[in-house]
Amino acid sequence: MNILVTGGAGFIGSHTVVELVKAGYSPFIIDDLSNSNESVLEGLKNILGFDVPFFNADCNDFEIVDQIVKENKIEGIIHFAAFKAVGESVEKPLKYYRNNIGSLLSILEVMQANKVRNLVFSSSCTVYGQPDFIPVTEDTPKKKAESPYGNTKAIAEDILEDVIKSGENVAMISLRYFNPIGAHESAEIGELPNGVPSNLIPFVTQTAIGKRAKLTVFGDDYDTNDGSNVRDFIHVVDLAKAHVSALDLLKTKENAFYDVFNLGTGRGNSVLEVIQTFEKVNNVKLNYEIGPRRAGDVVKIYGNVEKADEILGWKTEKTLEESLRDAWAWELKLKNNKK
Ligand code: UD1
Questions:
Q1: Domains of the chain, CATH where assigned
Q2: pLDDT (tens digit, 9 = 90+) per residue, 150-200?
Q3: Residue from 237, 20, 11 nearest 118 by CA
Q4: Among 62, 75, 151, 182, which one is most buried in terms of CB atoms within 10 A?
């Protein structure tokens, strides 16, 4: 089954491409490299032993996506391509609405035009906003998003629901990711942020390797066990495998179908716990300081992940320790490649 992976050169996209191939699917990548790098394709080749078909294009462009879908007999789409920097989205909301909503609309229109029935959409736990109770389940009410980025995910989910309500015979799943971290065990692919990372783990690894002078922990006075924020950190390979499970389920659906799933470990770890674990498993010292809170940060969130286990037959296998070891191995590999 030929699968179009938008944003397939990105962090989660590239790991998903590997798992798709392992499961017998044929991925085709479309990526405009706006927040990724062509070197990822080299990493994929080293893992898989062949070149994954790649199109350097923007999936806001209906004509191009339509042509790729037609020429390659695409039967399913995994739509990762989106901007994801929360802070930047507050400064440049239109950039985020244009790209994240525009690309979803063109993907849905291409599906309609070509009778492609299956879509897996990258959503986020950001749709829960600051939840009243944790762990959040898929039935936890969505709250007003804390940022334009978060709002693009909430709106996108609404768009998918409206498509289903319209009677269109498509089968779609939204996957609500918690915090993906780690890297492929081969260290051939991993997280490759452009410029200064805004996410925690790349900042941790870049500080440990000396690319950044110091990590700032954004607040230690929250109402949590040690005062720092709590998140559900999930290994990116576990997350990638869930996309295969989602496609496997969609293929069995002959009638219109839409569902949402939390993808996390079901456990919360604080930022300070992550730092301590990173230091311990990798035997490195991290230069960090406690700084002020970051605007818009949710205090504490982790997911109930029973639904994915029951319906997708998926659950995480890797530990926080493995994730942090793999993230570090990847940073070391990047350094060695530059020598
Ligand atoms: C956020 C979004 C998430 C989105 C992701 C994409 C929210 C609530 N979550 O995740 O939906 O998919 O961005 O980028 O909007 N931290 C530090 N120092 C740093 C960096 C981070 O202390 O230098 C802390 C943060 O305050 C946070 C935790 O580490 O508590 C994780 O931060 P980050 O990796 O940016 O992810 P989220 O903000 O959880």
A1: 2-332 (3.40.50.720)
A2: 999 999 999 999 999 999 999 999 999 999 999 999 999 999 988 899 999
A3: 20
A4: 182
Rounded distance from Cα 220 to ligand 1 centre (Å) = 15
- List the 118-124 sheet strands across, edge first: 54-56, 26-31, 2-6, 76-79, 118-124, 171-177, 257-263
Which residue has the least CA distance to atom 20 on ligand 1?
A: 200
Candidates 149, 222, 258, 302; catalytic one: 149
Confidence of residue 339 (pLDDT cuts 50, 70, 90): low
Q: Rounded to whole angstroms, how far apart are CA atoms 203 and 199?
A: 7
Q: What is the pLDDT of residues 95-124, one digit of tens each?
A: 999 999 999 999 999 999 999 999 999 999
Residue whose pair of structure tokens reads 């339509």 in the numeric block: 66
Q: Which atom of ligand 1 is nearest to the CA of 217?
A: 22
CB 40 within 8 A of CB 13: no
Cβ of 203 closer than 6 Å to ligand 1, yes or no, is yes
Threshold 0.70, pTM exceeds? yes
Mutate to test the pocket of ligand 1, among 222, 297, 323 (most ligand atoms within 8 A of CB): 297
The contacts of residue 293 (CB under 8 Å, 6+ apart) are: 218, 219, 221, 222
